[in-house]
Amino acid sequence: MAARRPAALVAAVLLALEAAGVLLLNWILSIVVDRQQMSLAGLRPGAMSTGAWAGGAVLALFLLCCAALLAYGALRDRAPGRLARIALICCAVVQGVVGALSVGLVGWPAFAAMAVPLALLVFALIAYGDQAPEPTGRPAEGPTRDGAPA
Questions:
Q1: Tens of pLDDT along 88-133?
Q2: Quick check: 12 and 68 in contact, CB under 8 A?
Q3: CB atoms within 10 A of CB 125
Q4: Residues pairing with 143 in the sheet
Q5: Between these two residues, 37 and 23, which has the higher pLDDT value?
Q6: Burial zone of 74 (CB within 10 Å; 0-12 exposed, 13-18 middle, 19+ buried)
Q7: What does the DSSP 8-state code read for residue 41?
Q8: Is residue 22 a contact partner of residue 63, using CB atoms and an 8 Å limit?
Q9: What is the four-CA torsion angle of 120, 122, 125, 126, rounded to 10 degrees?
């Protein structure tokens, strides 16, 4: 399938841009919380500010790792491994949840903007399908020439 490499590369770029946006948004939120001395259930504003910044940094790092996995897979034109596939599926779930939340908070254009990376991510996961593993160089186990088990 010819479209899987470009789709994976575009998804990687969009995830990297989304990581930058998440980091910027959480940085702005931490500044707002700090300057307005906001508190939630008795937490100190400094703790709230640090939590917003740290949460954004963790999510941005996760998105960047997923973007790197997609880019690496696209450059090699190979299906991601088991752990990479699990990470990309988790990223797709996060994209879907954030997209669903964005409908209520921001509106349908924001949902559409979140649905495009989700669609490309799912396509990149499905397009490679079940590729046969590379041969390891070991002979296959089974009966030998004379019919006896190996």
A1: 999 999 999 999 999 999 999 999 999 999 999 999 999 876 554 4
A2: yes
A3: 22
A4: 149
A5: 23
A6: buried
A7: T
A8: yes
A9: -110
57 contacts 23 by C-beta, under 8 angstroms = yes
Return all residues near 89 (Cβ < 8 A) that are at least 6 apart.
125
Residue 140's contacts (CB-CB under 8 Å, 6 or more residues apart) are none
Q: How far apart are CA 45 and CA 117, in angstroms?
A: 34
Tell me the C-alpha distance between 113 and 57, whole Å. 21
Residue 147 is inside which H or E element, if any?
none
Tell me if 15 sits within 8 A of 66, measured CB to CB. Answer: yes
